[in-house]
Amino acid sequence: MPDSPLSDSPYEVLGVPADADAATLRLAYRRALRSAHPDTGGDPERFHAVQLAWELVGTIEARAAFDRGGRAATAEPAHEAWAPAAPKPRRDSRPQARSYGHPGGLSREVYLSLVREWAGRGVTLDDPYDPALVRSAPRDIRHVLADALAEEATARSLANLGIAYTIWHDIATDAAGRGLPPKLDHLVLGPTGLFAIQSEDWGGPVALKRGELVGEVLGGERPIRALAARAKAIGRAARVKPTALVVVVPDDHAGEPLELGGTVRGAAVALVRRSRLASAVREGLPGSPHLGGTEVMEVRSRLQAAVRFA
After folding, report:
1. Per CATH, the architecture of 10-79 is what?
2. What is the pLDDT, as a whole number, of residue 65?
3. CB-based contact 170:183 (threshold 8 Å)
């Protein structure tokens, strides 16, 4: 199963329906492989995706395992990574950042509500994260689950910033949201500034252009504008001013590890790959002011008094 609920299934990669017979599937694979082969001018990423798709559904055994939700007969079901993870004991004794709130919690609640409503009244869902169920759900429902996973992944990355940083997750705001109760995914405070962060997974590439995100997958959304409105609402309530507005996406959805997009109301704007986020926060963004120790303590006190969780 793909890593994201929004990722194309192997059948979609090969351009066949999920109930295609073996001969049709094999023919589609050969055609896709020829058209994507780098030696004939094809796209190497597409070529790799076609090969992976065939590994997942190219044999009777692999296809049956995939349709049940796993990658192979002996593999663990891939959707276990989609369900809320059980807490794991820490092996690193270094102090972690102070953290408040429940990252991805609201998005998971909304997903569970939407998927049960979509399934219909009287239908019992033994596993709302079952891969076959998720694959068949409308894109807007899969998008909510993808965002929950993105928020949780960001939280894991930010936790290792160290004791100098404080993090709030799932913060309620009075700004407008996309089909969800209005909230800011993460707010990070430390000596390198006050970062308002939105974790996203649109299922495809995005880029910064003239201070806003662009991409076919956005469907008319204006993420930087929405993030700025949420950050402004929180800043107004706490009488603080965010120094950076950051949208973090899966690594393969951004062309550069860190892309800057000017400023909005004095806050530096950036699109950041997930693997680059922690170092970007530690280093600070170009054009984003650092904060002194006394200022960090004052801002933290104001936020602690004003923050409300979604």
Report:
1. Orthogonal Bundle (1.10)
2. 81
3. yes
